[in-house]
Amino acid sequence: MRGVDFDVVPMDVADQSDERIETERRESIRRALAAMLPDEPQVVVAGEDGAPTIICYDCLDPISPDRLQAYPRAVRCIDCQIEHERLESRNARIHG
To answer: Does the model's pTM come out above 0.70?
Structure first.
C-alpha cells in the first residue's frame, strides 16, 4: 500500500477508553491522597525535656527550630522536604 505510514496508527475506541480510565484512576488516587491530609498536619510529640516537639513526617526526627522559625507550618525537616520536592517534580514530569 503506497502512502500509508504504519508507524502512525490512530487509537481505536478501546485504546481511547483504556487511556481515559487510567487517567481518571490516577486523578481519583490524587484526590483521595489530598483528602487524607489533616487540617493541622504537624506531628507534635513530647520531646526529651517534655516540651512539645514537632517531628518530620518522613524521617520522624525533630524539625529544627531554625526550620520552624523560617516556616512555622513545616511538616518535614529540610532534608526530607528537599527530597519530597525532588520526587514530586520527577513524578509531575513522568505523569504529566
So the answer is: no
